[in-house]
Amino acid sequence: MFPGKKMVSAGPGCSSVAYGASEEIGPFRLNRTGSSLYLNKYSWNRVANILFLESPAGVGFSYTNTSSDLKNSGDGRTAQDALIFLVRWMSRFPKYKHREFYIAGESYAGHYVPQLAKKIHDYNKASSHPIINLKGFMVGNAVTDNYYDNIGTVTFWWSHSMISDRSYRSIMDHCDFSGERTSEKCDEAVNYAINHEFGDIDQYSIYTPSCMALPNSSTIRSPRFKNSLVRRRVAGYDPCTENYAEKYYNRPDVQKAMHANSTGIPYKWTACSDVIIKYWNDSQASMLPTYKELIEAGLRIWVFSGDTDAVVPVTATRFSLNHLNLTVKTPWYPWYSGGQVGGWTEVYEGLTFATVRGAGHEVPLFQPMRAFLLFRAFLGGKQLPSS
């Protein structure tokens, strides 16, 4: 019996169908014209049943009958709605009840995933007959803690020669990394670094060329990630795939085949929702207290980082996790995939951290074989191979 797994992705306000299913871990990828599909050799459904959830309402084909809901989204509501969905889904498809259940996601799902895990954990404790057999979760390049994420990001920019010493010192001197307040000098320093020193690179994958997107492309990311609206190219993959997703999922025949958009939403399907992004009004400053609680609960927790992402970089994640002060079980070592170093990993009491060498923000897009090996090891509760 395969375990169950739920995938949430990107955001806040971006679609796991656009990214997780169509670019990364789903069974199919989209071709350039958005007219057909081809098989993904490293699809994660080879080892698990996968449920992709477009969340919150207003993202992708997920909808609400109350338009004001779109301007009232946030962490708490998203987690509660996702829990309600899962309980109802399990009731509708009872054969999946009690199977091992895992949650995974990337980017702002660094909030979604542990928050939903906590909701499920609390729901199970309060229920005499829990139906969601939650075993663990994994997150990649995950937004975790405002202070450590921000200072770790600036450190990555400087250490990878994306910004000057002068800009680095100015940002460090003038910015409140907790994000609780802003200053004109901080804004000036950050804007100068991004607009005058970065150059035309893809912050989501700093070593790969960008997609030459059309001017009218609707591609967008969260305001936190607003400075990179283009995609990337590396051997064997296309950097413009999210543009193809918007072509494909707006086709009436595709929507009919998917049993999607049966209510006729009054707007085009997009990879990310401008409205959700703009009006997001509830975002926890730190997920570290939630991590501590879920580690104590005994869940299997893995955190991984593609090491060429400058948006939620590996330094940000390491700074955040170091603040948990966890006991090391297996010291830092290189792990291998296909005879090559796939990344580096360290195993703590209650949590495993791994980097993925040569991967950007969406790890399975850039390094699909390494990501698949990582996921398989996570499901099996095994350490990553040391040779």
UniProtKB/TrEMBL annotation:
Compartments it resides in = Secreted
Gene3D superfamilies for this protein: 3.40.50.11320, 6.10.250.940, alpha/beta hydrolase (3.40.50.1820)
Work out whether the entry's keyword set contains DNA-binding.
Answer: no
| Uppermost EC category | hydrolase
Q: Name one Pfam family in it.
A: Peptidase_S10
Keywords (A to Z) from UniProt: Carboxypeptidase, Disulfide bond, Glycoprotein, Hydrolase, Protease, Secreted, Signal
> InterPro entries attached here?
AB_hydrolase_fold (IPR029058), Peptidase_S10 (IPR001563), Ser_caboxypep_his_AS (IPR033124), Ser_caboxypep_ser_AS (IPR018202)
Keyword Magnesium set for record: no
Q: Name one GO cellular component term.
A: extracellular space
Swiss-Prot/TrEMBL GO biological process terms = brassinosteroid mediated signaling pathway; proteolysis
Which top-level group of life is the source organism from? Eukaryota
| SUPFAM superfamilies assigned to the protein according to its UniProt record, in alphabetical order | alpha/beta-Hydrolases
Q: What is its EC number?
A: 3.4.16.-
Which Gene Ontology molecular-function terms are recorded?
serine-type carboxypeptidase activity
Family of the protein in this entry: Belongs to the peptidase S10 family.
So what does this one do? Probable carboxypeptidase.
Give the protein's recorded name. Answer: Carboxypeptidase
